[in-house]
Each structure stands twice: as structure tokens, then as C-alpha cells.
Specification:
α3 links the parallel β3 and β4. Helices cover 43% and strands 15% of the residues. The strands form 2 sheets. The protein has a 6-stranded mixed sheet with strand order 1-2-10-7-8-9, with helices on both faces. Strands 5-4-3-6 form a 4-stranded parallel sheet, sandwiched between helices. The N and C termini lie far apart (43 Å). The protein is built from 12 helices and 10 strands. It is α/β, with parallel strands linked by helices and 309 residues long.
Length: 309
């Protein structure tokens, strides 16, 4: 495996003091309309509003960045890199697509980084960022296909495992695969790891069906955070060994889970952050009697006014 527990333990030591230990919320049967008890890890309370601060810090701390760094992102990795670069006093240039929500762009404005809007979706912003890296000498930070980034994201799984030992299953939303790659690398089949993807952003689902990463079209309510046109090679290699399967949820099911999360716990999540819960609230994943299920609620960068719409 390109990433394992040893690399994740190293990442945890490296980023200690730079990231938050995010809380868990244990619910009884009936919460959010789900018959089984659940344990939610509220990773949306992480610095910069998502789990991606973990990988950003792990990469920035270990890289030589004399000419600065460059990253492409639909929004969450952009915010994480901007936050980490500001804390570590590193110059950063961030490329974002036109699909990046205004709420995320507004937050980026609060950081001392250069922001460039390029292309409709993440893939086009990535191409533009690589052209900038080649011309400037800046170090490219890939949002999900980098072993150091994936190891950093794996610290989320490590932390969840220590907070709630003995989970049977963990549900994880997937875009390019950095989070599920890290989480699956940590649990290494000792706990079932199940991917949840929007029907219109299904890069891992199609890769597992094809036996290799393939290009997919992206769109829908979660495209800004889960809209990777192709799953990363590193996350895919891990997923083929340690992810049980990928489940698909519709846009309306994601939005309904988001509303239930607000109604039931007063937690404001972005659509991608609520996708894993949607598998349960929509009945796409049905726990067995007595099964201990954990859910990663992974992002909160959204306009709160849209949650109940």
C-alpha cells in the first residue's frame, strides 16, 4: 500500500498543534430518521471548515517551498492550503474553478494568498495550476493524489478510531479519494469502510467497476467539494484493498440529509459534508442489528441560509 499506519502515525505527530481534535456526536436510534444508533465525527469543525487542513499541514511542513506553493481546488482544499500557508508563512497561489461557491471564495479573501479563477470545474483549474507551477517554480500540492496528503487525511480515521474504538463500519464521502484513502489505510479492513458518492460525482464508483481510474462527468449539488473527474491513483490503490464498496446517493437525498442534520443537531454542513449521512437517511445503507456505524461529516463551507431551502 502507498500509505499505511506508519505514515499516518508520523503525520499525526507532525501536525499535532496545527489541527484540532474534532468531536464526535453519539446518537440514539431514531436520530435523523435513522433506526440505528450512530456516531458522527464532526470533522467539519476542523480549521478552514473541513478535514483537508490535515493533509495541507502535513504536506506544507515537509516540502521545500522557496518559490511558494500552488494548489487547485473546488474550494475546501483551497481554504485548507490558504490557512496552513498563512500559519506557516508560505506564499500560496490558489486556482479555483467557476463552480466554487461564493461562500468559499469569500472565505478565501480573508487569507493572504493569490486566488485565480480558471475553468468551469476542478479538472480545468488543476491544468491551469500546473501551468503556473511550471512557469513559476512553485511546488504543486495535489488535493488528493499525494501520499503525504493522504497520510494527513488518514489522521482523521486514526482520531476517530481512538475516540470510538470498535466501530463496525465507517461511511465516508468521496470526491477524488484523499479522505477515504487515508481512512481506509488506517482501518486496513479491520473496520468496514464504505464509500458514499453523489450519483453525479461518481469517480471512485466507476473506477471500481472498471478496475482502474477512469474519467467521469461531474455535476450536481456537491460538485464543488466532491466533483473530481477522476479518482486519484493512490486512493484507488488503497480502495481496491480496503474499501468494501461504493454507494450512490441522489442530490435530493444529500439535501434532505443536510436538512435533517440541521434539524436534529443544529449542525450546518455543506452538501458534500452531508453525503455520507445521506446513505443512511435515504436507506441506501441499512445497518444490521447491533452494528456500530460511524459517519464522517467532513465539510461546513457553505452559506448557512441555504441549509433549509
Amino acid at each position: 500500500m502507498p500509505v499505511g499506519r506508519e505514515q499516518i502515525e508520523e503525520a499525526a505527530r507532525r501536525i499535532a498543534g496545527h489541527v484540532r481534535e474534532t468531536p464526535v456526536l453519539e446518537t440514539g436510534p431514531g436520530a435523523f430518521g435513522v433506526g440505528a444508533p450512530l456516531v458522527l465525527k464532526l470533522e467539519l469543525l476542523q480549521h478552514a471548515g473541513s478535514f483537508k487542513a490535515r493533509g495541507a499541514f502535513n504536506r506544507l511542513i515537509t516540502v521545500e517551498h522557496g518559490a511558494g506553493v500552488v494548489a487547485a481546488s473546488g474550494g475546501n482544499f483551497a481554504l485548507a492550503v490558504a490557512h496552513a500557508a498563512a500559519e506557516l508563512d508560505v506564499a500560496a497561489t490558489i486556482f479555483v474553478p467557476e463552480s466554487t461557491p461564493a461562500a468559499k471564495l469569500a472565505r478565501l479573501d480573508g487569507y493572504p494568498c493569490a486566488v485565480v479563477v480558471a475553468g468551469a470545474y476542478y479538472g480545468e483549474a488543476l491544468v491551469a495550476s500546473r501551468e503556473h507551477a511550471a512557469a513559476s517554480g512553485a511546488v504543486e500540492l495535489h488535493a488528493f493524489d499525494d501520499d503525504v496528503i493522504v497520510a494527513g487525511q488518514g489522521t482523521c480515521g486514526r482520531e476517530f478510531d481512538r475516540q470510538v474504538p470498535g466501530l463496525d463500519t465507517v461511511l465516508v464521502a468521496v470526491g477524488g479519494g484523499g479522505l477515504i484513502g487515508g481512512v481506509a489505510a488506517w482501518f486496513a479492513s479491520g473496520t468496514r469502510v464504505v464509500a458514499v458518492e453523489p450519483e453525479r460525482c461518481r469517480a471512485l464508483h466507476e473506477a471500481l467497476a472498471a478496475g482502474a481510474p477512469v474519467d467521469v462527468e461531474v455535476g450536481g449539488v456537491a460538485a464543488d467539494s466532491l466533483g473530481a473527474a477522476r479518482v486519484g491513483d493512490i486512493p484507488f490503490a488503497i480502495a481496491t484493498e480496503h474499501v468494501e464498496r461504493s454507494l450512490l446517493v441522489a442530490d435530493e437525498q444529500i439535501l434532505e440529509a443536510r436538512r435533517r442534520l440541521w434539524d436534529g443537531a443544529r449542525v450546518v454542513a455543506e452538501p458534500g459534508g452531508a453525503a455520507a449521512l445521506a446513505a443512511l437517511t435515504a436507506g441506501v445503507y441499512e445497518p444490521e442489528p447491533g452494528e456500530r456505524v460511524g459517519v464522517l461529516v467532513c465539510g461546513a463551507n457553505t452559506d448557512p441560509a441555504t441549509v433549509t431551502v
